């Protein structure tokens, strides 16, 4: 029996593949545990500069496995309580990872798969793929940080509309609303995500790390607190090898060579 999650290395980019195509890559407890474990390990692996998340087959991820939850010995409420704990660890690892995380949306991204994609830094979506928050159509509420990331991407009114009516969101609509970074032809999401990851890793990863952290933390800080964090980050970047290389390259009118540390 194949592993429910596999990791494929391509240069300095690691691809985390949810490998349950028979269930549209919906995750049970073992699957999301494995996703979280791989993300923890990849965050600490200095040989990996970027991470891509995708699904095997025709789906990105259909979210939590309702069949699994319905058969949980202590009932579905207990199942989702346990599942969300592991799932939220995976989402936190994505948001705190000091390197780019991209979603290659190769098919349906629904429920927890929708929130998982929104947690990533960038989203590459295939033309025929579809997004759905799906939770409310099943009488459930959204987890995985979806109610945090969604209104920040599309605004409060649009987020409430998406949640209340749960209409399928096409790739073109997702791009128009700012839910995805790029729409590509079918079969190209992983290839294009790896290309984007490679482009990102040619830039300063230290600068990316600081910027990602500042943007993520900005929603919980006062303006004065955040200015101090910006000042500290700027000083740290200026003292870092990438910052010194970037400034020297600017003065010498050449392309900088980052990430040599």
Any idea of the CATH class of the largest domain? Alpha Beta
Uncertain spans: none
Q: Estimate the strand proportion.
A: 15-25%
Q: At the fourth CATH level, what is the homologous superfamily of the largest domain?
A: 2-enoyl-CoA Hydratase, Chain A, domain 1
Task: Describe the sheet with the most strands.
Answer: 6 strands, mixed
Q: Label the overall shape.
A: globular
Distance between the termini: 41 Å
CATH architecture of the largest domain, by name, is Alpha-Beta Complex
| CATH fold-level label of the largest domain | 2-enoyl-CoA Hydratase, Chain A, domain 1
Q: Strands across the major sheet, in which order? A: 1-2-3-5-7-10
Helix content: 40-55%
Number of helices: 11
Structural domains: how many: 2
Structural class: alpha/beta
Overall number of strands: 10
Q: Which labels suit this protein?
A:
single chain, 261 residues, alpha/beta, 2-enoyl-CoA Hydratase, Chain A, domain 1, globular
